[in-house]
Amino acid sequence: MNWFYIVMWEFGSWKTQNITKYLKVYNPKKEINISNYYNWYSQFQISNHTDLINILSDIYDYHQYINLYEYRDKLFTHKKERLPKYLEWAKSFHEKYWANLQKDIKFNIALDEASIYFNPRDFKNNFWWENVKLLDFIYQPRKLNLLFLVCNFQS
To answer: Tens of pLDDT along 54-84?
Structure first.
């Protein structure tokens, strides 16, 4: 399942516990959990907009340089001049992380108190200035094998 799973309910209705239950049943060989709150099942923890944008950028790079790597010649059939730069970036990505990164990893991002990231009272600033990069990732998370688990208090 790739997309958004949004949980909104009243205060004290176990929203965070329910999204944590989803994280609990992950397959550590095929999934990576990321959250903005502490739990036993996340490999990475984020704390602000910049962290979220950086981790989403890394997920995008993973998709570009790991999942699509074997198709690089086909991808650049009509733009062969771009292939050397792509190979350079792919090498850099492999060095930054590790050389044996497996293909088709699923990413789960759990955001508790999502209004911190997506403020309904000042919506235009959610995707303004340095946050504009969020739009690239929110439009089509399925292409990145990404699931957003979002929970928020509803008054």
So the answer is: 999 899 999 999 999 999 999 899 999 999 9
**Sign of CA pseudo-dihedral 25, 107, 54, 141:** negative
Question: Helix %, strand %, coil % for the chain, to 5?
Answer: 50, 20, 30
Residue 96 sits at φ, ψ, to 5 deg, of -65, -40
DSSP state of 154: -
State how far the alpha carbon of 46 is from the alpha carbons of 43, 109, 133, in Å.
10, 10, 16
For the chain, counts of helices (H) and of strands (E):
5, 5
Among 35, 47, 8, 49, CA closest to 108: 35
Global pTM exceeds 0.70: yes
